[in-house]
Amino acid sequence: MSTVLVAVTGWEPDAWARQLTKQLPGHTILQTDIEGAFPGSVNTLGGVDYLLAWKPKPELLERLSGLKVIFSLGAGVDHILGVDKLPDAPVARIVDPDLTARMSEYVAWQALHHLRLGPAYAQLQAGRQWEELRQPAASEVTAGLLGLGVLGQDAAAVLRRIGFRTIGWSRTQKQIESMECFHGGEGLDDFLSRTDILVALLPLTPATENILDAGLIAKLRKNGPLGGPVLINAGRGGSQVDSDIADALCEGTLAGASLDVFSQEPLPADSRIWDAPNLVITPHVAAVSSPRALSVQIAEQIKAFEAGQPLKNLVDRERGY
Ligand SMILES: NC(=O)c1ccc[n+]([C@@H]2O[C@H](COP(=O)([O-])OP(=O)(O)OC[C@H]3O[C@@H](n4cnc5c(N)ncnc54)[C@H](OP(=O)(O)O)[C@@H]3O)[C@@H](O)[C@H]2O)c1
User: Fold this and answer.
1) Ligand 1 centre from 121 Cα, in Å?
2) CA neighbours closer than 13 Å in the CB half-sphere of residue 283
3) Going by CA atoms, what residue is nearest to atom 19 of ligand 1?
C-alpha cells in the first residue's frame, strides 16, 4: 500500500490526516506538525508516494525521492512551484465546487458592500447620523474580472445574476456568453478603462507579480457611478503593491477596496494599509480549503491514478498555474 504525506505550514494537519485515513484505508498517512516540520525519522520520507501540500518546507521536499504526485491543498500552486529543487512529479491542484462557491460568496459580498455604500453608511452610523445617500443600481456598474479561470468565471456569473454588468480579462482569448472578454497585454487597457469594480482572481506567476500597482489603478474608469473605481483582490497578495493601494485609497484614486491577500501574510500590525480609508481587510479567508470536502476529491484522484487513469486538474509548471 502507498504512503501519503500531509505537509502543511500554518494549518492544522490532524483534520486532513483524519479525513484521509477514512478515505484511504490501508494507506500509510504521515503528517508534519503545524509548523510544517516532520516529527518522524526523515529516512522514511524517501518512501512517500503522494504529497498533499500547503506551503511545504523546501528541506522536506528535497527528501521525497520516490514521489509520484504532488497535490496542492489550495487552488493556487505558487506555494509549491516557487520551491527550489521541487521533485520531478506532476502537480495537481484543487478545483472544487465548495471552494468555488465560497469564493463567489466573498466576491458578491464585497461587490455589494461597495455598491451599497457600506463604508459611507458605517461612518454615518459611527456618528449617529441618519442620512440617505444616492445608491446606484448594480446594472449601472461594470465589474471587471481579472482572471477568467474556474473562480473568475463563477464569480462573474454570480455578479451577473445580481445585476452587475461583467467584462473579463485573461491570458488567452475566451468567448463567454453574456460577457465581453479581453485578453493579453493588448486588451488590458481597454478592459481597465471600462471597469468600475475590479475583481482580481489571478494566480501568482512572474507575469502577474505586482500587476495591481499605481499604473494599473490609474487606468480604471474614473467617472463611474461609485464616485471612483473599487478594487477587490482575492487572488494572491504577490500580485498587488500594498503601498500603491494604500496611497490610491488615501488620495481617492480608488473609492474603495477589499483585500483578502497581502504581499506579506500575516499582514504586519505596523503596515500602514490597516489605516487606509474605505478598505475591507480579511485574513486570506475568501475561500478556505475544507479538509472534509477536499480529502474525498484527492482520495479519488489517488485511487484513479493507482488504477492507471489520468490525473485531473494538472498544473502546467512552465505556465506557472
Ligand atoms: N483568497 C483565497 O482564499 C483563494 C482561494 C482559492 C484560490 N485563490 C487564488 O485564485 C487564483 C485563481 O484560481 P482559479 O481556480 O480561477 O485559477 P485558474 O482556473 O487557473 O484561472 C486562472 C485565470 O487567470 C488567468 N491568467 C493567468 N495568468 C495570466 C496573465 N499573465 N495574464 C492574464 N490572465 C492570466 C488565466 O488565463 P487563461 O484562462 O488564459 O489561462 C485564467 O483565466 C488561484 O491561483 C489562487 O491564487 C485564492
Assistant:
1) 33
2) 6
3) 149
What angle separates helix 150-162 from helix 97-115, to the nearest 10 degrees? 40
183 an active-site residue?
A: no
Q: Of the residues 284, 292, 317, 319, which is catalytic? A: 284
Residue 245: partners with Cβ closer than 8 Å, 6 or more residues away: 212, 217, 231, 254, 257, 259, 273, 276
Task: Assess whether the C-beta atom of 56 lies below 6 angstroms from ligand 1.
Answer: no
pLDDT tens-digit profile, the chain (321 residues): 899 999 999 999 999 999 999 999 999 999 999 999 999 999 999 999 999 999 999 999 999 999 999 999 999 999 999 998 899 999 999 999 999 999 999 999 999 999 999 999 999 999 999 999 999 999 999 999 999 999 999 999 999 999 999 999 999 999 999 999 999 999 999 999 999 999 999 999 999 999 999 999 999 999 999 999 999 999 999 999 999 999 999 999 999 999 999 999 999 999 999 999 999 999 999 999 899 999 999 999 999 999 999 999 999 999 999
